[in-house]
Amino acid sequence: MDFTLEFERPIVELRQRIEGLREIERTQGTDFSGAIEQLERQADVLLDQVFSTLTPWQHTLLSRHPSRPYLLDYVAGLFTDWTELHGDRAGHEDHALVGGLARFGGTPVMVIGHQKGRNTKQNILRNFGMARPDGYRKALRLMELANRFGRPIFTFIDTPGAYPGIDAEERGQAEAIARNIMEMSTFTVPIICTIIGEGGSGGALAVGVGNRVLMLENSVYSVISPEGCAAILWRDRAEGPKAAEALKVTAADCFKLGVVDQVIAEPRGGAHRNPEKAISNLGVALRENLDQLLTMSGEARKQDRYDRFRAMGSFFEGQAE
To answer: How are beta strands 191-200 and 220-222 bridged, if at all?
Structure first.
């Protein structure tokens, strides 16, 4: 997909100049190797400069890049024997939240996650990755199935938030999210959650109660989107960059605050520049974390998950005056 963020434009334009010179070399036989080599060095330096000084807002834009790997890309790259399962057993199917059986190496697992679309038609089908309560009830059904048969659970989070439409509220959006959070805390199988793009609000938390919570380098995780926060605080969505700074949405911030356990490095320039490498990096981290959790008993994993979330946050005690 040909999509360029504003801060990426100088890099893209430089790469286009390089490709233009290479095309002239191919068609006219002129030697531009020296100029091409110099421009490639400039492009590498510029790439490092831009991506070493990203603001929280720029990380937010990267997390939404339409060329980033989505859930089904990770399924294709990391898992085998994928069989998608459908329905909440109450008459509804939600395409924004996908789940199914698979194998990770030789281990039978359950895979669940948000799926966005890459064009208008797909985004309408996937509702831009915003699940209704039917999706969260489907996810819970699949997680209960995995827990019953001892299959580790992998969840992949990439959503602006749960769908806020009136039909979702009528069918119990808040109850569905709350029940998922409660039930996930009781499971004895390993649960590894990864934020691969946007981790937004309750829509993320409904499949985010894990023994390990991982986060890709250019993903974001927050109680509300920066634009939503800006609309509330300053009544102006254009103040999103200011809100992103205050919300501490980046992977580095979330790791520092103890919200996530590990930050997964992305290829230079973001996961969208080299999806295969991004998928491979995450696969290594998932394997390491799963192997650790498989050495623990079911009750120990359950206690580990409880302890992890109880340890979040900090406070201090002062003396009353």
So the answer is: parallel
Looking at per-residue pLDDT, the higher value among 290 and 44 belongs to: 290
Q: Are strands 107-114 and 80-85 parallel, antiparallel or unpaired?
A: unpaired
Beta-bridge partner residues of 154:
111, 192
Q: CA-to-CA distance for 74 and 120, rounded, in angstroms? A: 21
**Type and span of the H or E element at 50:** helix 33-51
CA distances from 161 to 44, 52, 206 (A): 35, 28, 10
Report the C-alpha gap between 103 and 288 in whole angstroms.
16
The predicted model scores a pTM of 0.89
d(CA 203, CA 114): 9
- The answer to whether residue 1 is domain-embedded is no
Query: What CATH number corresponds to the domain at position 190?
Result: 3.90.226.10
For position 5, what pLDDT does the model report? 83
**pLDDT value at position 196?**
97
Number of alpha carbons in the 13 Å side-chain half-sphere of residue 37: 4
| 45 and 67 fall within a common domain | no
Residues 6+ apart with CB under 8 A from 159: 96, 114, 129, 130, 131, 198, 199, 200, 203, 204
> Domain range holding 219?
60-310
SS3 assignment, position 80: strand
Same domain, yes or no, for 168 and 211?
Answer: yes
Residues 237 and 115 in one domain: yes
* One-letter amino acid of 70: Y
Looking at the structure, tell me whether residues 144 and 31 fall in a common domain.
no
pLDDT digits (tens, 9 = 90+) for 164-189: 999 999 999 999 999 999 999 999 99
Query: DSSP 3-state assignment of 212?
Result: strand
Residues contacting residue 34 through CB under 8 Å, at least 6 positions apart: none
Buried b (16+ CB within 10 A) or exposed e, 120-138: eeeeeebbebbbbbbbbbb
Identity of residue 2 = D
* Separation CA 62–CA 196 (nearest Å): 11
